[in-house]
Amino acid sequence: MARAGSGFVIVYFLQVVLAFILVLAPLVFIHELGHFLMAKAFRIGVPVFSLGFGPRLWGFRRAETDYRLSLVPLGGYVRLAGDEADENRTGAAEEFLSRPKYQRLIVFVAGPVFNIVLAFLAFWLFFGVYGKEVVAYPVVQAVEANSQAAQAGIQIGDTLIEVNGKDLIAEDADQVLSLDLLLSPNQEREIVLERHGQRITTTLFTGEDPKYKMGLPGWRLGSEDEIPTILEVRPGSPAEKAGLRADDVILSAGGWDEIGQLELRQMIQQAPDLTIDLIVERAGEHVPITVIPRMEADGKARIGITFVPFEAPRVSLSVGQAAAESLRQNLVLSKMLFVVLKRLVTREVSVRSMSGPIGIAQVARNALVQGPKMFLYLIAFFSLQLGILNLLPIPVLDGGHILILFVEGVIRRDLSENLKERVMQVGFVFLLAFMGLIVVLDFVKIWG
After folding, report:
1. Structural domain boundaries of the chain?
2. pTM, entire model
3. Domain 135-225, what architecture?
4. Which pLDDT band holds residue 8 (cuts at 50, 70, 90)?
5. pLDDT over 70 at 383, yes or no
6. Model confidence over 262-300: pLDDT tens digits?
7. What value, to the nearest 5°, has the Cα angle with vertex 342 and ends 340 and 345?
8. Which residues pair with 200 in a beta bridge?
9. Can you tell me the distance from the alpha carbon of 162 to that of 356, in angstroms, rounded to the nearest whole number?
10. Domain formed by 230-307, architecture
11. Cα distances (Å, whole numbers) of residue 234 to 113, 231, 244, 369
12. Residue 77 burial (CB count, 10 A)
Protein backbone atom coordinates (compact mmCIF):
# COMPACT_ATOMS: atom_id res chain seq x y z
CA MET A 1 0.00 0.00 0.00
CA ALA A 2 2.95 2.31 0.69
CA ARG A 3 4.17 1.74 -2.84
CA ALA A 4 0.74 2.62 -4.25
CA GLY A 5 0.70 5.81 -2.18
CA SER A 6 4.21 6.75 -3.30
CA GLY A 7 3.27 6.09 -6.92
CA PHE A 8 0.26 8.37 -6.58
CA VAL A 9 2.42 11.15 -5.13
CA ILE A 10 4.92 10.84 -7.98
CA VAL A 11 2.20 10.89 -10.64
CA TYR A 12 0.52 13.84 -8.90
CA PHE A 13 3.81 15.77 -8.77
CA LEU A 14 4.51 15.13 -12.46
CA GLN A 15 0.98 16.23 -13.36
CA VAL A 16 1.45 19.45 -11.35
CA VAL A 17 4.76 20.27 -13.06
CA LEU A 18 3.43 19.47 -16.54
CA ALA A 19 0.26 21.50 -16.02
CA PHE A 20 2.22 24.48 -14.69
CA ILE A 21 4.48 24.49 -17.75
CA LEU A 22 1.54 24.02 -20.14
CA VAL A 23 -0.21 27.05 -18.60
CA LEU A 24 2.77 29.33 -18.12
CA ALA A 25 4.68 28.69 -21.36
CA PRO A 26 2.05 30.03 -23.82
CA LEU A 27 1.30 33.05 -21.60
CA VAL A 28 4.97 33.99 -21.32
CA PHE A 29 5.54 33.37 -25.02
CA ILE A 30 2.62 35.60 -26.05
CA HIS A 31 3.72 38.32 -23.63
CA GLU A 32 7.31 38.39 -24.86
CA LEU A 33 6.12 38.07 -28.46
CA GLY A 34 4.27 41.36 -28.02
CA HIS A 35 7.47 43.12 -26.95
CA PHE A 36 9.46 41.37 -29.69
CA LEU A 37 7.12 42.19 -32.59
CA MET A 38 6.77 45.85 -31.64
CA ALA A 39 10.55 46.16 -31.27
CA LYS A 40 11.04 44.60 -34.69
CA ALA A 41 8.38 46.87 -36.18
CA PHE A 42 10.39 49.90 -35.03
CA ARG A 43 13.68 48.28 -36.16
CA ILE A 44 14.98 48.02 -32.61
CA GLY A 45 17.64 45.34 -32.13
CA VAL A 46 16.63 42.23 -30.17
CA PRO A 47 19.71 40.19 -29.18
CA VAL A 48 17.81 37.63 -27.03
CA PHE A 49 14.31 36.10 -26.92
CA SER A 50 14.21 33.74 -23.94
CA LEU A 51 11.56 31.50 -22.41
CA GLY A 52 12.78 31.05 -18.85
CA PHE A 53 15.55 32.72 -16.86
CA GLY A 54 19.09 31.76 -16.03
CA PRO A 55 21.54 29.61 -18.02
CA ARG A 56 20.73 28.82 -21.64
CA LEU A 57 19.65 25.18 -22.14
CA TRP A 58 18.86 25.10 -25.84
CA GLY A 59 18.21 27.47 -28.71
CA PHE A 60 19.14 28.71 -32.13
CA ARG A 61 20.23 31.96 -33.69
CA ARG A 62 18.47 33.64 -36.57
CA ALA A 63 19.78 36.96 -37.85
CA GLU A 64 20.67 39.05 -34.76
CA THR A 65 18.48 37.19 -32.26
CA ASP A 66 19.31 34.23 -30.05
CA TYR A 67 16.06 32.31 -29.44
CA ARG A 68 16.54 30.21 -26.33
CA LEU A 69 15.05 28.05 -23.59
CA SER A 70 16.57 28.83 -20.20
CA LEU A 71 16.85 26.83 -17.00
CA VAL A 72 14.24 28.43 -14.70
CA PRO A 73 10.75 28.12 -16.29
CA LEU A 74 9.13 30.92 -14.26
CA GLY A 75 8.88 33.59 -16.94
CA GLY A 76 10.85 34.93 -19.87
CA TYR A 77 12.36 38.06 -21.32
CA VAL A 78 13.26 39.93 -24.48
CA ARG A 79 16.59 41.74 -24.33
CA LEU A 80 16.56 44.93 -26.38
CA ALA A 81 19.71 46.42 -27.86
CA GLY A 82 21.24 49.12 -25.63
CA ASP A 83 18.69 48.60 -22.83
CA GLU A 84 21.05 47.08 -20.27
CA ALA A 85 23.01 49.41 -17.99
CA ASP A 86 26.25 47.45 -18.46
CA GLU A 87 26.13 47.55 -22.26
CA ASN A 88 28.55 49.63 -24.29
CA ARG A 89 26.00 51.95 -25.86
CA THR A 90 26.92 53.71 -29.07
CA GLY A 91 23.77 55.72 -29.67
CA ALA A 92 23.07 53.69 -32.83
CA ALA A 93 19.57 53.89 -34.29
CA GLU A 94 18.76 50.25 -33.43
CA GLU A 95 19.38 50.82 -29.71
CA PHE A 96 16.23 50.98 -27.58
CA LEU A 97 17.15 54.19 -25.74
CA SER A 98 17.83 55.95 -29.05
CA ARG A 99 14.20 55.64 -30.07
CA PRO A 100 11.45 58.21 -29.37
CA LYS A 101 9.52 57.82 -26.13
CA TYR A 102 6.28 56.89 -27.91
CA GLN A 103 8.02 53.92 -29.55
CA ARG A 104 9.45 52.74 -26.23
CA LEU A 105 5.99 53.15 -24.67
CA ILE A 106 4.40 50.98 -27.36
CA VAL A 107 7.07 48.28 -26.88
CA PHE A 108 6.41 48.19 -23.12
CA VAL A 109 2.61 48.19 -23.51
CA ALA A 110 2.62 45.49 -26.21
CA GLY A 111 3.41 42.58 -23.85
CA PRO A 112 0.43 43.10 -21.49
CA VAL A 113 -1.84 43.98 -24.41
CA PHE A 114 -0.98 40.71 -26.15
CA ASN A 115 -1.95 38.84 -22.96
CA ILE A 116 -5.26 40.69 -22.74
CA VAL A 117 -5.96 39.99 -26.42
CA LEU A 118 -5.13 36.31 -25.83
CA ALA A 119 -7.60 36.25 -22.93
CA PHE A 120 -10.31 37.69 -25.19
CA LEU A 121 -9.56 35.18 -27.98
CA ALA A 122 -9.35 32.21 -25.58
CA PHE A 123 -12.66 33.10 -23.92
CA TRP A 124 -14.18 33.65 -27.38
CA LEU A 125 -13.08 30.15 -28.36
CA PHE A 126 -14.28 28.79 -25.02
CA PHE A 127 -17.80 30.18 -25.37
CA GLY A 128 -17.90 29.41 -29.10
CA VAL A 129 -17.06 25.74 -28.53
CA TYR A 130 -18.73 25.05 -25.19
CA GLY A 131 -21.51 27.62 -25.12
CA LYS A 132 -22.76 29.56 -22.10
CA GLU A 133 -23.86 28.00 -18.84
CA VAL A 134 -27.56 28.19 -18.11
CA VAL A 135 -27.81 30.32 -14.97
CA ALA A 136 -29.58 28.79 -11.97
CA TYR A 137 -29.73 29.59 -8.29
CA PRO A 138 -27.21 27.49 -6.30
CA VAL A 139 -28.46 24.88 -3.83
CA VAL A 140 -26.86 24.20 -0.44
CA GLN A 141 -25.34 20.72 -0.76
CA ALA A 142 -23.71 20.49 2.66
CA VAL A 143 -23.51 22.48 5.91
CA GLU A 144 -20.60 22.04 8.32
CA ALA A 145 -21.58 21.43 11.94
CA ASN A 146 -21.18 24.56 14.12
CA SER A 147 -20.28 26.63 11.04
CA GLN A 148 -21.45 30.17 10.35
CA ALA A 149 -24.02 28.77 7.91
CA ALA A 150 -25.35 26.37 10.55
CA GLN A 151 -25.61 29.17 13.11
CA ALA A 152 -27.55 31.25 10.56
CA GLY A 153 -30.09 28.42 10.29
CA ILE A 154 -29.16 27.48 6.73
CA GLN A 155 -30.12 23.91 5.84
CA ILE A 156 -29.12 21.37 3.21
CA GLY A 157 -31.44 21.76 0.22
CA ASP A 158 -31.95 25.52 0.67
CA THR A 159 -31.77 27.53 -2.55
CA LEU A 160 -29.63 30.68 -2.34
CA ILE A 161 -31.45 33.61 -3.98
CA GLU A 162 -29.73 36.82 -2.82
CA VAL A 163 -26.53 37.87 -1.09
CA ASN A 164 -26.31 41.39 0.33
CA GLY A 165 -29.21 42.55 -1.80
CA LYS A 166 -27.78 41.10 -5.03
CA ASP A 167 -29.86 38.56 -6.93
CA LEU A 168 -27.65 35.65 -8.03
CA ILE A 169 -29.28 35.41 -11.46
CA ALA A 170 -29.64 39.12 -12.21
CA GLU A 171 -26.02 39.65 -11.11
CA ASP A 172 -23.03 37.44 -11.92
CA ALA A 173 -23.32 34.72 -9.26
CA ASP A 174 -19.62 33.83 -9.22
CA GLN A 175 -18.68 37.49 -8.80
CA VAL A 176 -21.18 38.03 -5.97
CA LEU A 177 -20.18 34.88 -4.10
CA SER A 178 -16.48 35.70 -4.48
CA LEU A 179 -16.56 39.39 -3.57
CA ASP A 180 -19.33 39.40 -0.97
CA LEU A 181 -18.53 36.14 0.82
CA LEU A 182 -15.19 34.54 -0.05
CA LEU A 183 -13.21 37.80 -0.20
CA SER A 184 -15.13 39.45 2.65
CA PRO A 185 -14.00 37.64 5.82
CA ASN A 186 -15.62 38.45 9.15
CA GLN A 187 -18.48 40.44 7.65
CA GLU A 188 -22.25 40.24 8.11
CA ARG A 189 -24.26 39.57 4.96
CA GLU A 190 -28.01 39.46 4.50
CA ILE A 191 -28.98 36.21 2.77
CA VAL A 192 -32.28 35.39 1.07
CA LEU A 193 -33.05 31.66 0.78
CA GLU A 194 -35.90 29.63 -0.63
CA ARG A 195 -37.03 26.61 1.40
CA HIS A 196 -40.01 24.51 0.38
CA GLY A 197 -41.35 27.39 -1.71
CA GLN A 198 -40.98 29.95 1.10
CA ARG A 199 -38.58 32.92 1.00
CA ILE A 200 -36.45 33.23 4.17
CA THR A 201 -34.17 36.13 5.06
CA THR A 202 -31.32 35.58 7.50
CA THR A 203 -28.00 37.17 8.46
CA LEU A 204 -24.84 35.21 7.72
CA PHE A 205 -21.49 36.03 9.34
CA THR A 206 -18.88 35.14 6.71
CA GLY A 207 -16.31 33.95 9.26
CA GLU A 208 -12.66 33.41 8.39
CA ASP A 209 -10.67 30.42 7.21
CA PRO A 210 -7.62 30.13 9.54
CA LYS A 211 -5.41 28.92 6.70
CA TYR A 212 -6.40 31.22 3.81
CA LYS A 213 -7.83 34.13 5.84
CA MET A 214 -10.84 34.21 3.52
CA GLY A 215 -14.57 34.05 4.18
CA LEU A 216 -15.69 30.64 5.43
CA PRO A 217 -19.49 30.29 5.62
CA GLY A 218 -19.15 26.53 6.10
CA TRP A 219 -21.38 25.34 3.28
CA ARG A 220 -20.98 23.73 -0.10
CA LEU A 221 -23.06 25.07 -2.96
CA GLY A 222 -24.00 23.20 -6.09
CA SER A 223 -27.00 22.05 -8.09
CA GLU A 224 -29.85 19.82 -7.01
CA ASP A 225 -29.22 17.65 -10.09
CA GLU A 226 -25.55 16.76 -9.52
CA ILE A 227 -24.72 13.23 -10.72
CA PRO A 228 -22.12 11.43 -8.54
CA THR A 229 -19.42 10.62 -11.10
CA ILE A 230 -16.03 9.79 -9.57
CA LEU A 231 -13.08 11.93 -10.64
CA GLU A 232 -10.39 10.47 -8.35
CA VAL A 233 -10.05 7.71 -5.75
CA ARG A 234 -7.59 8.36 -2.92
CA PRO A 235 -4.99 5.58 -2.43
CA GLY A 236 -5.57 3.53 0.69
CA SER A 237 -9.11 4.84 1.09
CA PRO A 238 -12.25 2.75 1.74
CA ALA A 239 -13.30 3.49 -1.84
CA GLU A 240 -10.10 1.97 -3.26
CA LYS A 241 -10.42 -1.08 -1.01
CA ALA A 242 -14.02 -1.53 -2.17
CA GLY A 243 -12.96 -1.41 -5.83
CA LEU A 244 -14.33 1.97 -6.87
CA ARG A 245 -12.53 3.60 -9.82
CA ALA A 246 -12.29 6.96 -11.55
CA ASP A 247 -15.13 7.48 -14.08
CA ASP A 248 -17.51 5.20 -12.15
CA VAL A 249 -21.04 6.66 -12.03
CA ILE A 250 -22.87 5.84 -8.80
CA LEU A 251 -26.43 4.97 -9.77
CA SER A 252 -27.81 3.91 -6.41
CA ALA A 253 -26.72 3.71 -2.78
CA GLY A 254 -28.32 2.02 0.21
CA GLY A 255 -31.30 1.05 -1.92
CA TRP A 256 -31.85 4.66 -3.05
CA ASP A 257 -32.11 4.70 -6.85
CA GLU A 258 -30.98 7.67 -9.00
CA ILE A 259 -29.15 9.17 -6.05
CA GLY A 260 -27.53 12.59 -6.40
CA GLN A 261 -24.32 13.92 -4.88
CA LEU A 262 -26.26 15.76 -2.18
CA GLU A 263 -28.03 12.65 -0.90
CA LEU A 264 -24.93 10.44 -1.26
CA ARG A 265 -22.75 12.81 0.78
CA GLN A 266 -25.39 12.88 3.52
CA MET A 267 -25.64 9.08 3.52
CA ILE A 268 -21.86 8.62 3.78
CA GLN A 269 -21.50 11.17 6.60
CA GLN A 270 -24.25 9.45 8.60
CA ALA A 271 -22.84 5.92 8.21
CA PRO A 272 -19.32 5.70 9.71
CA ASP A 273 -18.15 2.06 9.88
CA LEU A 274 -21.44 0.85 8.36
CA THR A 275 -21.77 -0.89 4.99
CA ILE A 276 -23.34 0.94 2.06
CA ASP A 277 -24.32 -1.10 -0.99
CA LEU A 278 -23.69 0.74 -4.26
CA ILE A 279 -24.55 0.10 -7.88
CA VAL A 280 -22.10 1.82 -10.22
CA GLU A 281 -22.08 2.11 -13.98
CA ARG A 282 -18.69 1.13 -15.43
CA ALA A 283 -18.04 0.76 -19.17
CA GLY A 284 -21.76 0.28 -19.80
CA GLU A 285 -22.20 -2.39 -17.12
CA HIS A 286 -23.83 -2.21 -13.68
CA VAL A 287 -21.38 -3.31 -10.98
CA PRO A 288 -22.40 -3.96 -7.33
CA ILE A 289 -19.92 -2.64 -4.74
CA THR A 290 -20.00 -2.48 -0.96
CA VAL A 291 -18.12 0.32 0.78
CA ILE A 292 -17.62 1.15 4.47
CA PRO A 293 -17.17 4.89 5.25
CA ARG A 294 -14.31 5.64 7.63
CA MET A 295 -14.37 8.29 10.34
CA GLU A 296 -11.43 10.65 9.84
CA ALA A 297 -9.49 12.96 12.15
CA ASP A 298 -11.82 15.91 11.55
CA GLY A 299 -14.79 13.89 12.81
CA LYS A 300 -16.33 13.34 9.34
CA ALA A 301 -17.05 10.03 7.69
CA ARG A 302 -15.63 9.69 4.17
CA ILE A 303 -14.87 7.00 1.62
CA GLY A 304 -12.03 8.87 -0.13
CA ILE A 305 -13.39 9.95 -3.50
CA THR A 306 -13.59 13.21 -5.41
CA PHE A 307 -16.60 13.81 -7.65
CA VAL A 308 -16.44 15.26 -11.12
CA PRO A 309 -17.60 18.91 -10.82
CA PHE A 310 -21.19 19.36 -11.84
CA GLU A 311 -21.71 20.37 -15.45
CA ALA A 312 -24.60 22.82 -15.67
CA PRO A 313 -26.62 22.80 -18.92
CA ARG A 314 -25.15 25.07 -21.57
CA VAL A 315 -26.67 26.89 -24.55
CA SER A 316 -24.85 27.25 -27.86
CA LEU A 317 -23.75 30.75 -28.92
CA SER A 318 -23.18 32.22 -32.36
CA VAL A 319 -19.77 33.64 -33.24
CA GLY A 320 -20.96 37.16 -32.39
CA GLN A 321 -22.64 36.06 -29.15
CA ALA A 322 -19.48 34.20 -28.08
CA ALA A 323 -17.40 37.34 -28.71
CA ALA A 324 -19.83 39.45 -26.67
CA GLU A 325 -19.77 36.90 -23.83
CA SER A 326 -15.96 36.87 -23.94
CA LEU A 327 -15.90 40.65 -23.59
CA ARG A 328 -18.36 40.50 -20.68
CA GLN A 329 -16.34 37.79 -18.93
CA ASN A 330 -13.11 39.75 -19.30
CA LEU A 331 -14.75 42.87 -17.88
CA VAL A 332 -16.20 40.96 -14.90
CA LEU A 333 -12.87 39.30 -14.09
CA SER A 334 -10.99 42.58 -14.52
CA LYS A 335 -13.33 44.30 -12.08
CA MET A 336 -12.87 41.47 -9.59
CA LEU A 337 -9.09 41.73 -9.85
CA PHE A 338 -9.08 45.47 -9.16
CA VAL A 339 -11.44 45.02 -6.20
CA VAL A 340 -9.15 42.32 -4.77
CA LEU A 341 -6.07 44.53 -5.26
CA LYS A 342 -7.84 47.41 -3.49
CA ARG A 343 -8.81 45.15 -0.59
CA LEU A 344 -5.25 43.85 -0.34
CA VAL A 345 -3.93 47.42 -0.09
CA THR A 346 -6.54 48.37 2.51
CA ARG A 347 -5.92 45.05 4.32
CA GLU A 348 -9.55 43.99 4.02
CA VAL A 349 -8.23 40.77 2.46
CA SER A 350 -5.18 38.85 3.61
CA VAL A 351 -2.22 38.19 1.32
CA ARG A 352 -2.86 34.54 2.14
CA SER A 353 -5.77 34.65 -0.31
CA MET A 354 -3.25 34.94 -3.16
CA SER A 355 -1.63 31.96 -4.87
CA GLY A 356 2.01 31.70 -5.87
CA PRO A 357 3.66 29.29 -8.33
CA ILE A 358 2.80 26.24 -6.20
CA GLY A 359 -0.85 27.19 -5.78
CA ILE A 360 -1.18 28.07 -9.48
CA ALA A 361 0.45 24.76 -10.44
CA GLN A 362 -2.08 22.85 -8.32
CA VAL A 363 -4.99 24.72 -9.89
CA ALA A 364 -3.53 24.05 -13.35
CA ARG A 365 -3.17 20.34 -12.54
CA ASN A 366 -6.81 20.11 -11.42
CA ALA A 367 -7.94 21.86 -14.61
CA LEU A 368 -5.80 19.52 -16.74
CA VAL A 369 -7.33 16.47 -15.05
CA GLN A 370 -10.84 17.83 -15.70
CA GLY A 371 -10.19 18.15 -19.43
CA PRO A 372 -9.64 20.71 -22.21
CA LYS A 373 -12.64 22.89 -21.33
CA MET A 374 -11.39 23.84 -17.88
CA PHE A 375 -7.82 24.10 -19.12
CA LEU A 376 -8.81 26.55 -21.87
CA TYR A 377 -10.74 28.62 -19.32
CA LEU A 378 -7.68 28.68 -17.07
CA ILE A 379 -5.43 29.85 -19.92
CA ALA A 380 -7.80 32.75 -20.60
CA PHE A 381 -8.13 33.60 -16.89
CA PHE A 382 -4.40 33.66 -16.15
CA SER A 383 -3.59 35.51 -19.38
CA LEU A 384 -5.93 38.33 -18.36
CA GLN A 385 -4.44 38.42 -14.86
CA LEU A 386 -0.89 38.50 -16.24
CA GLY A 387 -1.72 41.31 -18.65
CA ILE A 388 -3.36 43.54 -16.05
CA LEU A 389 -0.82 42.90 -13.28
CA ASN A 390 2.07 43.73 -15.62
CA LEU A 391 0.53 47.16 -16.20
CA LEU A 392 0.70 48.04 -12.50
CA PRO A 393 3.13 50.96 -11.90
CA ILE A 394 5.68 48.84 -10.04
CA PRO A 395 9.35 49.11 -11.04
CA VAL A 396 10.63 46.08 -12.99
CA LEU A 397 7.12 45.39 -14.34
CA ASP A 398 6.11 46.89 -17.69
CA GLY A 399 3.90 49.34 -15.79
CA GLY A 400 6.95 50.58 -13.89
CA HIS A 401 8.78 51.35 -17.13
CA ILE A 402 5.67 53.08 -18.46
CA LEU A 403 5.50 55.20 -15.28
CA ILE A 404 9.11 56.32 -15.72
CA LEU A 405 8.42 57.29 -19.35
CA PHE A 406 5.38 59.26 -18.17
CA VAL A 407 7.43 61.10 -15.52
CA GLU A 408 10.12 61.91 -18.08
CA GLY A 409 7.45 63.22 -20.42
CA VAL A 410 6.02 65.47 -17.71
CA ILE A 411 9.38 66.94 -16.64
CA ARG A 412 10.53 67.08 -20.31
CA ARG A 413 13.87 65.42 -19.67
CA ASP A 414 15.28 61.94 -19.09
CA LEU A 415 15.94 60.78 -15.57
CA SER A 416 19.53 59.79 -14.88
CA GLU A 417 20.49 56.21 -15.64
CA ASN A 418 21.74 55.82 -12.08
CA LEU A 419 18.38 56.89 -10.63
CA LYS A 420 16.42 54.60 -12.96
CA GLU A 421 18.69 51.69 -12.12
CA ARG A 422 18.22 52.27 -8.39
CA VAL A 423 14.42 52.46 -8.81
CA MET A 424 14.44 49.18 -10.74
CA GLN A 425 16.60 47.54 -8.09
CA VAL A 426 14.18 48.59 -5.35
CA GLY A 427 11.28 47.25 -7.41
CA PHE A 428 13.12 43.99 -8.02
CA VAL A 429 13.86 43.50 -4.31
CA PHE A 430 10.23 44.29 -3.46
CA LEU A 431 8.87 41.80 -5.98
CA LEU A 432 11.40 39.16 -4.95
CA ALA A 433 10.46 39.55 -1.29
CA PHE A 434 6.75 39.56 -2.12
CA MET A 435 7.01 36.43 -4.28
CA GLY A 436 9.10 34.78 -1.58
CA LEU A 437 6.33 35.49 0.92
CA ILE A 438 3.69 34.10 -1.45
CA VAL A 439 5.72 30.91 -2.01
CA VAL A 440 6.19 30.46 1.75
CA LEU A 441 2.44 30.92 2.23
CA ASP A 442 1.82 28.35 -0.52
CA PHE A 443 3.80 25.83 1.55
CA VAL A 444 2.00 26.88 4.74
CA LYS A 445 -1.40 26.40 3.07
CA ILE A 446 -0.42 22.93 1.86
CA TRP A 447 1.39 21.57 4.92
CA GLY A 448 0.51 24.04 7.64
Report:
1. 1-35+100-132+314-392+442-448, 43-98, 135-225, 230-307
2. 0.77
3. Roll (2.30)
4. low
5. yes
6. 778 878 888 888 899 999 999 889 999 999 999 888 777
7. 110
8. 193
9. 32
10. Roll (2.30)
11. 42, 10, 10, 15
12. 16
